[in-house]
Amino acid sequence: MVHKKLMNARMALQSMQLKKSGHNKFAGYQYFELGDFLPQINEIFHSLGLCGVISYTKDYADLTITDVDDGTCIVVTSPMVEANLKGAHAIQNLGAVETYQRRYLWMTAMEIVEHDALDSSAPLKEEKKSPVISPRGGIGEDLPQEIKEFLQEFAISISELVKNGKAVEALSMIDEQQLEADQKVYLSNQLESSVRSAIKKAKVI
């Protein structure tokens, strides 16, 4: 039964107008980030009686899709790899790997098609333009995409803690990451002003 439900889920997702928020400026193409399709998949799975759970071992990452009505399941597997991002701590490298694994496992399971990076040729040549200066000078925008995706998801967790009245815990989580200066700025840029304000107040408690 799980196969039939998964196929129905794929068809339901296919009928939705998904937008790609990721942009590879180097090669000149857009791509799906996890947040572009996972909320829709969760809604579809809930309506069909499916549950997807991702687990990790040293060698593999698995996405187990289970039919909650009869217990049948499908397992999508991907081999684990290491990330060695410049200026990143071990936990950041792990976070980057797990973020990528989650994205690719779901894309495989749901047959989500996008740009094939292996088919891309040389990066697009663009005329030099005057730099666009953001309120924070663009600090952090040149971080590796893996780090930025990790920080984006980390910002969501931080925001949820703060909105639940746990600014001190959120501050502790940030300190534990031991982020570099540009990573801290990028993370701050992902947070609403009210969240940043709450964290700032937590520092003096």
Outline the structure in words.
With 205 residues, this protein is an alpha+beta fold. It has 2 domains: 116 residues, no CATH class; 69 residues, no CATH class. 47% of the residues lie in helices and 14% in strands. The protein is built from 7 helices and 5 strands. The chain has a 3-stranded antiparallel beta sheet. A two-stranded antiparallel sheet has the order 1-2. Strand 4 and strand 5 form a beta hairpin. Helix 1 packs across helix 2 and helix 4 runs antiparallel to helix 5. It starts with a helix and ends with a helix. About 11% of the residues have low confidence.
Summarize this, please?
The protein is an alpha+beta fold. 47% of the residues lie in helices and 14% in strands. It has 7 helices and 5 strands; from the N terminus they run αββαβββααααα.
Question: SSE layout and pairings?
Answer:
Layout: H1 2-14, E1 22-24, E2 29-31, H2 34-48, E3 50-56, E4 60-67, E5 73-79, H3 90-109, H4 145-163, H5 167-177, H6 181-189, H7 193-202
Antiparallel strand pairs: 1-2, 3-4, 4-5
Helix pairs in contact: 1-2, 3-4, 4-5, 4-6, 5-7
Overall spatial form? globular
Spans where pLDDT lies below 50 across 5 or more residues: 116-137
The major pleated sheet works out as:
3 strands, antiparallel
Helix-strand pattern: HEEHEEEHHHHH
> What strand order characterises the main sheet?
3-4-5
Radius of gyration, Cα only, in angstroms?
19 Å
Beta strands, count: 5
The number of helices is 7
User: In percent, how helical is the residue content?
Assistant: 40-55%
Distance between the termini: 54 Å
Write down the overall mean pLDDT.
79
Beta-strand residue fraction:
5-15%
**Total individual domains:** 2
| Class per helix and strand makeup | alpha+beta
